[in-house]
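Worked example

This section walks through a single chain of length 105. The input is the sequence exactly as stored; nothing has been trimmed or padded.
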Amino acid sequence: MRERQPCVYMLASGFYGTLYVGVTSNLIGRLIQHREEWMRGFTSEHAVKRLVWYEVADTMDAVIAHEKRLKRWLRDWKIALIERDNPRWDDLAIGFGLPPLPPPR
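Given that input, the structure is written out below as C-alpha cells.
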C-alpha cells in the first residue's frame, strides 16, 4: 500500500466486538494513532484498535461516500462484510508490519 492512499476502514475491539468505521489517506499512520490512543474519543474509550476490514479507492471523495453508507448499515451487514474476507476477525494491521495487539480484556 502507498503511504498516501484514500481508504475506508473498520476497527473492532475484538471478535464480534464494538465496531468503528473511519476514513484516512494514511492507513498505517491512522492505525498507530488508534493503537496509541493519541486522540480521546470513541475508539480509545471502547478499546477499538484491531483493523478487521479496509478498502482503498482513488479519491477521498469516494472513501468518504463509502464511509457514510457503511455508517448507516445495520451491524449484521457490517459483520457480513468483515467475515466475507476475514472470517476469524484477524488484525489485518499485522500484514502492514505493525506488532500484534494483546488479547482483548
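What to look for: Helices lie at 27-35, 42-45, 60-72, 75-85.
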